[in-house]
C-alpha cells in the first residue's frame, strides 16, 4: 500500500516564510513555497504581515538618532545586572561541585586500576621535590636577610654614633638600592 503524500497546498509551512524573506531557501523550495502562496490565503497574509513588520523595524532603526542613551547607561546597566544576579555560589552549588570532583576522582582511580600506586607514587615524589625546592628558596631568603641585617647593624653602629649625616646617607643608599631592585624585578617579570 502506498504511503499518503502531502502536497504543499494542504500543509501550511509558516516556518519557511522567514527563511523565504531572508533568501535562505533553495531555488526548488522557493518555487514550491511560491506555488503554495499562490493558492493559500493564510500563508500569503502571514507573509505580508512579516514583510510589514520588517518595514516598520527598518524605519525605526533608520531613526536611531532619536533615541539617546544617558552618558552612564552602560555603568548603570552593568551595576544593575551584577546586583540583581542571585543564586550564584550558593552552598548547594559548592556541595554539588565537590561531589562531582569526588566522583571524577573515584572514576580516575577505577580507570587506573593496578597502576594507581605507581601514579600516586610519582605524584608523591614530585611533591617531595617541590617541597625541597621551596625549602631551599625559603632558607636562601632567610640567610640573605640575616646577612643583610648583620651588615646593616655593623654599618649603623659605626656611622650613627658619629653624627646624623651618615645615617641620612645610609637611608638614601638603601632607598636607591630598593628602587633599583624593584625596577629590576619589574623588568624581569615582563620578560
Q: How would you describe this structure to a colleague?
A:
The protein has 191 residues and is mainly alpha-helical. The chain has helices spanning 15-22, 27-39, 41-62, 73-84, 91-112, 116-160, 165-190.
> Structural class per helix/strand content?
mainly alpha
- Pattern of helices and strands: HHHHHHH
Number of helices: 7
**Mean residue pLDDT:** 78
Principal-axis shape equals elongated
Distance between the termini: 78 Å
Helix share, percent: over 70%
Beta-strand content estimate: under 5%
Low-confidence stretches: 1-9
Number of strands: 0
What are its keywords?
mainly alpha; elongated; single chain
Explain the layout of strands and helices.
Blueprint: H1 15-22, H2 27-39, H3 41-62, H4 73-84, H5 91-112, H6 116-160, H7 165-190
Quick rundown:
With 191 residues, this protein is mainly alpha-helical. The chain is built from 7 helices and no strands.
Amino acid at each position: 500500500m502506498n504511503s499518503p503524500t502531502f502536497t504543499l497546498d494542504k500543509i501550511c509551512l509558516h516556518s519557511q516564510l522567514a527563511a523565504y524573506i531572508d533568501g535562505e531557501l533553495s531555488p526548488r523550495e522557493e518555487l514550491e513555497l511560491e506555488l503554495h502562496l499562490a493558492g493559500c490565503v493564510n500563508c500569503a497574509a502571514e507573509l505580508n504581515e512579516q514583510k510589514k513588520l520588517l518595514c516598520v523595524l527598518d524605519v525605526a532603526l533608520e531613526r536611531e538618532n532619536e533615541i539617546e542613551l544617558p552618558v552612564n547607561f552602560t555603568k548603570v546597566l552593568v551595576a544593575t545586572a551584577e546586583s540583581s544576579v542571585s543564586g550564584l555560589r550558593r552552598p548547594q552549588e559548592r556541595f554539588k561541585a565537590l561531589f562531582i570532583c569526588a566522583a571524577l576522582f573515584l572514576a580516575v582511580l577505577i580507570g587506573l586500576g593496578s597502576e594507581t600506586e605507581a601514579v600516586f607514587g610519582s605524584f608523591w615524589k614530585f611533591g617531595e621535590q617541590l617541597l625541597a625546592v621551596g625549602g631551599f628558596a625559603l632558607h636562601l631568603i632567610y640567610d640573605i636577610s640575616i646577612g643583610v641585617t648583620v651588615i646593616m647593624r655593623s654599618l649603623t653602629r659605626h656611622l650613627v654614633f658619629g653624627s646624623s649625616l651618615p645615617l641620612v646617607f645610609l637611608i638614601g643608599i638603601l632607598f636607591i638600592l630598593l628602587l633599583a631592585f624593584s625596577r629590576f624585578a619589574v623588568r624581569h617579570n615582563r620578560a
